[in-house]
Amino acid sequence: MTRIDIMANERLLDDRHHLHEFQELWADGPVAFVFLRQFGSSFAVRQAQSLNRHHDEIIAAGAQVVFIGLGTSIQGFTFRKRTQTRSLVLTTHDQTLYRTMGLWRYRAGTIGPSNLGAWLKLMREGVYPYQRTGDPYQLGGVFVTTAGGREVTWDFRAHKASDIGPAEEIADALVQAALRHPVGVIT
User: Fold this and answer.
1) How many angstroms separate the CA atoms of 39 and 76, rounded?
2) How far apart are CA 40 and CA 42, in angstroms?
3) β partners of residue 66
4) Which domain of life is it from (predicted)?
5) What is the pLDDT of residue 163?
6) Structural domains in the chain plus CATH codes
7) Residue 95: pLDDT over 70
8) In this predicted structure, what is the pLDDT of residue 116?
9) Mean pLDDT of all residues in 156-172
């Protein structure tokens, strides 16, 4: 399974210019780290909207979702406002964390015809791209970690731009991680 503890001391800015260290994020419960392709991507917007529908269930389990994107704090702020997410939005200026987590940078996977159908479907549903941020060829992924960052219990890596982690599976993985390693219980 994927290791996430190597990122424990990494520090990122949120969309309000506050620094957060990874180990503080998983101190109180499980976390789903959602690495976005781009803040302005229609697929990233859909990912946040899908997870918004599970927000109360995730919080009730003592877990949280953290979005991570390539860009500036103001771009992260715009993403949070546009998607109306109540989750934390972190920003990074380089792809070090993406590489650390084994996320692909793949040109054919981002501009190829394999994304066209999914993109047109989102457009018909009213989900539009609004800004290009970061690297246009970077793909995203999701990693669910237990409290304390002990282990990654569920992961998803995109192979093309239209691949986003299923919100239901992410929410279920967070609930299962909360049950597996309750906060305050030493294993």
Assistant:
1) 7
2) 6
3) 33, 88
4) Bacteria
5) 85
6) 3-180 (3.40.30.10)
7) yes
8) 60
9) 90
β-bridge partners, 156: 142
Whether the CB-CB separation of 178 and 147 falls below 8 Å is answered with: yes
Which residue reads 């999914």 in tokens? 118
CA-CA-CA-CA dihedral for 60, 66, 72, 75, to nearest 10 = -50
| Tokens describing residue 41 | 């991507």
pTM for this prediction: 0.87
> Which residue type does 171 have?
A
Cα 47 from Cα 131, distance rounded (Å): 16
Max mean pLDDT among 2-6, 140-144, 157-161 falls in 140-144
Q: How far apart are alpha carbons 161 and 155 in whole angstroms?
A: 17
Residues in the chain: 187
Residue 80 near residue 15, CB atoms below 8 Å: yes
Per-residue tokens: 42: 């229609």
> Kind of pairing, strands 141-145 and 31-35?
antiparallel
